[in-house]
Amino acid sequence: MNSGQTEASPGQRLTVTMAQVDCLVGDIPGNAEKILASARRAVEEQGADIVVFPELALTGYPPEDLLLRPSLDGRVEEALARLAAEKLPAALVVGTPVRRDGLLYNAAVVIDQGERGATYFKQQLPNYQVFDEKRYFAAGTEPCVTLIRGVPVGLTVCEDVWMDGPVEKAAVAGAKVILNLNASPYDMDKQARRKALLERRARENGVSVVYVNMVGGQDELVFDGGSMVVDHSGELAVEVPQFAEGLYPVEFIVEHHCQPVAQVPIPEPSLEQNVYNALVWGVRDYVNKNGFASVVLGLSGGIDSAVTLAVAVDALGADRVRAVMMPFRYTSGISLEDAEAEATALGVQYDVFSIEPMYDAFMAALAEPFEGTKPDTTEENLQARLRGVLLMSLSNKFRSLVLTTGNKSEMAVGYSTLYGDMAGGFDVLKDVPKTLVYRIANYRNTLGAVIPERVITRPPSAELAPDQKDEDSLPGYDILDQILHQYIERDMSAEAIIAQGFERADVERVVRLVDINEYKRRQAPIGVRITERGFGKDRRYPITNGWKLGK
Questions:
Q1: Would you say 300 is a known binding-site residue?
Q2: Does residue 488 lie in a domain region?
Q3: Active site: which residues (predicted)?
Q4: Three-state secondary structure call for residue 218
């Protein structure tokens, strides 16, 4: 323990500000300026003694192979020197990579009144799901407890609270409060698991825990914030909103324990509200951080494109969203009416371009090689590919990102057209099962009716053939989504799923479709991750393989 200060006297008050910030991966100078601006505000407006920032706030998370760049160390050191040079009266606790004796560590660094103080190295490095920290970092082994304003403060980073050891070591070393820096991505059940874990850690070790989480979108990941404080008895004292960037002060009273002053509990958001917020934030940050002027999407009159359009408008504003209806001979009048109603309700630019002339031109060109064959999915896929060409042309001309509209259920079983409706840069609903898409649509309409009721209630169809319905070639979505959940997110075998009461024919068909369509998913746009097991970094199966269905 750093003993350069006198321990706090009983009754002393300590203000800790949780800086729930959105950082841009790789922009080390820009992130440093954001950290400084946040710290200044915390000092001036909140009287902060300590300002705690998220894990790897200086680089953004996850920096991936940027950590291998030769100039990383110099850029980090320049940024840390910049933070120190400000000589703020509060102690800043900043997440950053630090190299020591040739090894790179995921670290928490204390900068107090112009001096670099204690440095802690993360002990538990996650290497599962979307995490691969062992590729880059060495693991620390020792606790770090330092006096800040006379209070023994223990430092930990993210996974350290999920595993036994680091919190216990810090408590044994004398910590009265644990500061835990996080870059914990959102999934639908995550916040409840975090609360239960922190309450147990605090209670078992008799220390308060300050949990500070990042907020914002980074490629497929969305960080939801939800920072909180749990007291030494395991009671939740403070919880801040998810999906909200901000500075959140907490006052502690230093007695035998370091006791946080409890704040009024915030309302518990619904699952649909949280998922919708994740989608909105994921789209906003992906578009803005990558410098796109606007987005464009195909509007079909169906549920998926309707929800995607609403998310895009809520993320970017109607003036940055363009919707295009591309009808064909199989497009119903209802679809045309509903698409126009959606675009009008949300106030976006709306265009209608028939693909009929283009389709006829292609079929004329293909007449000779196709002679003697019967129409099949080839002709259906051509319709989708023509739409993809139109959207990508608008994208190129107007620097717009194409948003695709496929949901997780469709992506899982390959119910999509490669280079057709999969053509684009970002799939908003990629990790959202079809049954949840309907729930999100209903939730969005509670904020203002923008999706016509019959879009939600009528049977879904790709409208690539006469009277086509999705469920003509798939099990009902209520059954399909349950099978997919067990197979994709729970890694259950076909036999184990059948044993739960599902029809063998349905399970074997669905599992086979998931397996054989890996090649499509590898070529699909990224999209917001909202489940524990999304398609992307989470799930890495070989395209070419001989694995058989079974146990």
A1: yes
A2: no
A3: 55, 122, 158
A4: strand
